[in-house]
């Protein structure tokens, strides 16, 4: 799976949601998100809440 690209607004939205988490959760979620952006995972990080993730990364060739 190719690596994904993320817009600045997607990154900022992700960072804002991440800031509301504990240090342990931030570490886990950031690692999951990195794996998603790098193309290692099919699904983005699971914040464990009802709000869906806003990151809609676009794959670039």
In the sheet with the most strands, the strands line up as 1-2
Q: Helical amount among residues, as a percent range?
A: 40-55%
- Biggest sheet overview: 2 strands, antiparallel
Could you state the order of secondary-structure elements as H and E? EHHE
- Give the class from helix and strand content and strand pairing: mainly alpha
Question: What is the subunit organization of this protein?
Answer: single chain
> What proportion strand?
5-15%
How confident overall, as mean pLDDT? 81
Instruction: Count the E strands.
Output: 2
Count, helices: 2
| Distance, first to last CA | 11 Å
Q: Whole-number radius of gyration?
A: 11 Å
Unreliable stretches: none
Note the overall shape. Answer: globular
How would you sum up this structure in a few lines?
Residues 1-11, 22-39 have a biased composition (Basic and acidic residues). This protein is mainly alpha-helical and 61 residues long. Helix content is 44%, strand content 7%.
Outline the structure in words:
- The chain is mostly helical and 61 residues long.
- The chain has a domain at 23-55.
- It is 44% helix and 7% strand.
- It has helices at 8-19, 23-37; strands spanning 4-5, 58-59.
- The chain has a two-stranded antiparallel sheet.
- Residues 48-61 have a biased composition (Low complexity).
- Residues 1-61 are annotated as: Disordered.
- Residues 1-11, 22-39 have a biased composition (Basic and acidic residues).
């Amino acid at each position: 799976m190719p690596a994904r690209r993320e817009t600045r607004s997607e990154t900022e939205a992700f960072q804002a949601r991440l800031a509301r988490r504990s240090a342990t959760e931030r570490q886990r979620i950031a690692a999951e998100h990195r794996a998603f952006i790098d193309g290692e995972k099919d699904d983005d990080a699971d914040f464990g809440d009802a709000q869906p993730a806003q990151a809609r990364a676009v794959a670039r060739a």
